[in-house]
Write a structure and sequence with these properties.
10 copies of one chain form a homodecamer. Chain A is an alpha+beta fold. Chain A is built from 2 helices and 5 strands. The mean pLDDT of chain A is about 95.
Chain lengths: ~90, ~90, ~90, ~90, ~90, ~90, ~90, ~90, ~90, ~90
């Protein structure tokens, strides 16, 4: 099942530039793993914002939540999830 | 996978009382079938409104859409769907 | 450039079932052409609604508007368009 | 009477990891008591968020408030409550 | 249990002045009965609108819904219900 | 003239438990005075929130503002005021 | 006591141009009376809209409602009322 | 003074194709006059919608309103106006 | 040209009571100057809030912005501006 | 392709007046470069706010994002982007 997932990340001001840089590297690495597993299928940036919208695939909302929560930046992400149904033209 | 589904039904004024009555009977009958199949698990009324909130179970959003679209009143229902993940306390 | 386009179609009650059926066939045919041209890349259904969300590609917003306006159901569609930027992970 | 209760918990950054861990254990323990009393009937996680939606039963809004306020994380919870009426199909 | 109930009534243009007048008399009569039963405790008008806010008392949301649905104008009322808990200062 | 007044109080984290306790006692004392004067007529708690809704009586919005501003917690209260007109059924 | 009152008037399509014209004359006449009584103190047009915002004075919300309801176009007006308190700089 | 003006036009279903076509020609003609006068400076289409956003110049909101109200489609336009101040970089 | 201007002031917790008091005196003094110049014509308090709504007059939005920005509390004010057109009844 | 871009900048309280001043100079310098390149075409101030709305031109949303992200104040800007299509009257 596919989901449209939108999130915006706000790292706290108290985080050092080094910590932030390291976190971003870890985020990228984990995202790459999720892509290889087929969980994260596409990712776009919302222009002008520190926000992305992505196309995810998971068995259900529980598996999707676990994938999202495995992202190192998850504690600082504001996430919204929209379930998608297959369109008749694509069946 | 479970979904929280909210809908409010507004039959058009042009529908006769007989047609509306027949439609409601058909709706009830189809809802009962969906309950027996385990697709529709609980249904509550929002007090003061012609609206309900229900707990549904389906393999994915496509199967859920097909179940909702099988309701005779579907053309006059305003529906919103919220995907639910299993809470760790219930795993 | 890619766009996320969401629309919900509400045909007027005054339209006959035949007219509606013919319009839907024409809509499907035009959508297929837009897919073959690469303008319409993916289409999902929002569960429980007469609404879709789609991934479109066009040179710019003007070309996108012309593609949307070429859909036979366009006069009855409520449309919203979100521009997408390429995510660094996909460059 | 049943209520649909939605809450999102945001522990302050100033809380140590130990305090947060202890609070979560206490929360889980109190939630278990409320389940055994029949006050908390079901709990789901909103995917991608530190939020839950639950089905609660209480005599009235006052008893429900007291149950919610007995949760150790209550001071950091943003709560919304929706009263539910019995649906005729379930009477 | 007390509820704050807000509603705005919009009679359809197709209703004759006589029908509307008769409906309003019936509404007033039923409201008076609900007052005598203690279900409807106070009623205020929202200035400038065909809307009222009222203080209602019922055992639960189901009983409240049945009281609201017994109002002759219920089919044309847009209703919202807010559950109220007893304030500690009033216990 | 009556007003429906809704407020939610958020004491700052920097306030000590003692200060908060003292403030709450002072708040209760002032609220009691306002009740005796007939300015504060009823108070309900919004279930699950640190918020209340109350029925107030004052000559006008200026007198109401002065009463609200006399509450010791006023600097930390988010307030909204709704003017109420007498309903014809209560004249 | 002063109130800021905003309203937008939408006459139904079924009203003839003559009826609409007559109604507007009556509206203007009644507004002039309310100005002479001191109830309607100022009136502005929201640019681009069939909407106005006005400064009204009335003893309380009940008197204000009666003044608004005395306007011939009242049945077709969408009204919102905001109570105003005297600013300390103007006392 | 410049204004950002957004409007969406919805011609009623009861209008014949001929009337609509004639109205659109008149609209285009009047818009051209407003461009030549310097009142209408730029016009963009919101992609996917029967809506435009435009840059207008007028002495004040009254003159702007008169210009907008002179458009033949004004009775069917939903308009919102945003006043613009000169940016220091452009002074 | 007249504008309806609404603002709410939130001084930071880190500001000392002395600084806040001094700022308020300066604010009052500057507001008085703006009144004498005819820029600030009326000011009302929104009951229950640290917010005001005022009637301002300025040649255009740029002059209005400069007047608002000259208020000593401007850095801590959340402002919204609504342009007003002259109503035909007041021409 | 043109975009309407709205942003509001909120520098943190912890930034010194010197740092803020330097950042603003750098912002102005970078904005001037973007104007010379033809990326930033017009800029207006929203009266009463630390916000601007601008007309930008870029090949696509990715190029627009890169231009916005090149502004020194970008980390403290809340940005929203609206794609614009060419209006038939301007083709």
């Amino acid at each position: 099942m596919e989901f449209l997932v939108r999130f915006e990340t706000t790292l706290p001001d108290s985080m050092s530039a080094d910590q932030a840089q390291q976190l971003k590297s870890q985020e990228r690495a984990r995202a790459m793993e999720l892509r290889q597993e087929g969980t994260l299928k596409r990712l776009w940036r919302i222009p002008g914002r520190r926000a992305v919208v992505g196309l995810w695939e998971a068995d259900d909302a529980t598996e999707l939540h676990d994938a999202l929560a495995s992202l190192p930046q998850f504690p600082w992400m504001e996430v919204s999830v929209e379930p998608l149904a297959t369109h008749p033209q694509e069946r």
